[in-house]
Amino acid sequence: MTLTKADLIDSLYNQVGVSRTKSTRLVEALLEIMKATLESGEDVLLSGFGKFSTRKKRERRGRNPATGSVLMLKERRIITFKCSPVLRDRMNRT
Description:
Layout: H1 5-16, H2 20-39, E1 44-46, E2 50-57, E3 60-63, E4 70-73, E5 76-83, H3 85-91
Antiparallel strand pairs: 1-2, 2-5, 3-4
Helix pairs in contact: 1-2
């Protein structure tokens, strides 16, 4: 099962007891803060959960899988996630 934005809103509504409208605003605001921080090149560290960071991928040679033709993939930034040891241990607990 995938955790969606709607699931987060429902969880806030049910567990914290804030209104659905306020829950929606809180989730949207949190995601906007995270997006803006990553866009500016800074990391997002959620203690006990993990770290989102950006890194650059240099230009490289690729291939179109449909046609097999060679093409150059442009330099770009990507987001990576590194799980915290706390979350990793919790996931692997038996």
